[in-house]
Design a protein that fits this description.
The structure is a single chain. This protein is α+β, with helices and mostly antiparallel strands. It folds into 2 domains: 253 residues, no CATH class; 243 residues, no CATH class. It has a 15-stranded mixed β-sheet with strand order 2-1-3-7-10-11-12-20-21-24-25-19-18-15-14. The protein is globular.
Length: 541
């Protein structure tokens, strides 16, 4: 009898222990997306996964790797905020559900309208105060590792206004340690409680954001093709316009290089965490800026025939193996893969180096990075005649203590990138390029050594035909016709130029486009009227 009771008690204890535990890690390379609005954001959430819109039409050439396990959640549902909530905070929380909960995969991506303390969830809104991510404790069963969000201001950080910048919360580096308020946003205060120790990072936009196929395409082009690490791929990918300042936040120890902000690839392992918060954001060089062109639209615009770029002569000494559309060098960078890869359908070239970071070393002067980048492209045979002066950016990490009431704010440079843009001359006027091609990009470690480099630059064979060009007024009116609530929007800026695609795209023609950036007239109504980016063909065909 005693043995029977003991057996029953042991079985009960075992059952309770198993029930109270959850899987240590999520499934490797598992990704789920959700949309908070059924406007273009439902397409964005699908494009992130497959490169298609919600109806299956191809729309983005780069997307989540094909080998990953993918799910687009909440399609056809309404009032989905409970799937973002943790039941340890609110009884309604269901973020641990295997079907619709966001706290289950390795990576979760959200696209929709937002504001500093909330974001839309298909009819209602989710508030940050009800969220906890990666908390695999008891029955919470949260195993998320990476949380990516494309919304306006949900990750707002720093002062509302910055000198010389007309957009709110565009300078996270000027954060002064104040509590979260409308005038000084504090991402540590709002997102700190959400970051349970196992979550590796959460990323979003400090400023206004636009989220569609162009943004998801650039994020995955950065990661899949250019070799950017996880945080860099998101931040650079979402920073397509001057008014968009993304950032990532994580917990970690004293040494910044030991944090997930240095994840070269996605992992389903938990974050070792630590007693510090770290954020990463992008900052422009003080000494360089993109070229400003005199905007004169010619009466006629050539359409050019493109062919793949020949392999640069200095790279012909390497041995390559071919697989599908790619050539991979047999030389490898330890822990990163082939030192060189070439896309055969475009001729795009990608080069890798070792990642180096010394927290105590002083970064170089900006002019030294520019000189090193120019020397590299010359030595590797990447130089072109029709090229802009480089625009320089730096990735910056900000660190504070999680425990001190008035923490010391410290900053570190993580790496720098120099970007050279292609140009075409028409009627003695310089026409710029837009898109993910027509670029030479050199990412350097702080000591000036190579981390990543790419040249996406198809060769122009000849002019295939010439068309009349649309005037600015014609293109603007076409763009405006796509906005229903015209009185709620204003034109913030616009550009035009020839559009070259990412390096893994088969592109045989080079055409010009107008790109119009519309922002809300009332900045306080961004959740109702988020930014709109509208692209219009510049040709009358």
């Amino acid at each position: 009898m005693k043995r029977s009771v003991l057996y029953i008690l042991c079985s009960l204890v075992t059952t309770l222990l198993v029930a109270s535990c959850c899987p240590k890690n999520p499934a490797p390379n598992s990704v789920k997306t959700a949309h908070g609005n059924t406007d273009w954001h439902i397409d964005t959430a699908e494009e992130f996964l497959t490169g298609n819109d919600i109806n299956g039409n191809p729309s983005a050439s780069n997307h989540c790797p094909d080998t990953w396990t993918k799910t687009h959640m909440h399609v056809g549902l309404t009032n989905t905020n409970t799937y973002y909530y943790d039941k340890g905070v609110t009884a309604a929380g269901q973020d641990n559900l295997s079907t619709n909960g966001i706290d289950k995969p390795m990576l979760f991506f959200y696209a929709g309208h937002g504001a500093p303390t909330l974001f839309n969830t298909l009819g209602n809104s989710a508030y940050l105060t009800n969220m906890r991510l990666g908390n695999c404790q008891g029955s919470n069963d949260g195993t998320l590792r990476y949380y990516w969000q494309c919304s306006c201001e949900v990750f707002a950080h720093g002062p509302k206004t910055c000198t010389g910048i007309p957009y709110d919360y565009a300078c996270p580096g000027d954060f002064d340690g104040s509590p979260d308020s409308d005038n000084m946003r504090n991402v540590y205060e709002r997102w700190g409680p959400i970051l349970n120790p196992a979550l590796r990072m959460a990323c979003g936009s400090s400023t206004l954001a636009y989220c569609h196929e162009g943004e998801t395409n650039k994020i995955w082009d950065n990661y899949n093709n250019k070799g950017y690490d996880v945080a860099d791929a998101f931040i650079d990918g979402l920073h397509r316009y001057t008014w968009n300042t993304p950032l990532c936040i994580t917990t970690g120890g004293l040494f910044v290089s030991g944090t997930p902000l240095f994840d070269n690839t996605f992992t389903n392992a938990p974050n070792p965490s630590g007693s510090y918060y770290h954020i990463q954001y992008l900052s422009n060089f003080a000494t360089t800026a993109p070229s400003i062109f005199e905007v004169i639209i010619p009466e006629f615009l050539p359409i050019y025939e493109l062919i793949p770029l020949p392999l640069p002569d200095p790279l012909r000494k390497y041995k390559f193996v071919e697989k599908d559309d790619w050539m991979y060098s047999t030389d490898e960078i330890k822990g990163r893969g082939p030192a060189i890869k070439v896309n055969r359908i475009s001729g795009a070239v990608y080069l890798l180096g070792e990642q180096r970071f010394d927290e105590k070393a002083k970064p170089l002067e900006e002019k030294e990075y520019i000189s090193l980048a120019e020397r590299f492209i010359e030595n590797q045979g990447l130089t072109e005649k029709d090229i802009s002066k480089p625009a320089g950016t730096r990735m910056v990490i900000q660190r504070i203590s999680r425990e001190e009431k008035q923490p010391d704010i410290q900053k570190f440079q993580k790496n720098v990138t120099l970007t050279f843009k292609r140009q075409i001359t028409l009627d003695s006027k310089t026409v710029p390029f837009v898109g993910e091609g027509g670029l030479i990009s050199i990412q350097l470690n702080n000591d000036g050594t190579l981390f990543n480099a790419s040249k996406v630059w198809r060769q122009i064979k000849e002019i295939s035909r010439t068309t009349r060009a649309k005037t600015y007024e014609q293109a603007y009116n076409e763009a405006l016709a796509q906005i229903k609530e015209r009185d709620a929007y204003k034109l913030a800026d616009w550009t035009w130029g020839y559009e070259e695609q990412a390096g893994n795209v088969r592109q045989t023609e080079l055409k010009a486009v107008f790109i119009f950036n519309f922002l809300p007239v009332d900045p306080e109504k961004i959740i109702d009227y988020p930014p709109r980016i509208i692209k219009i063909s510049a040709h009358i065909e």
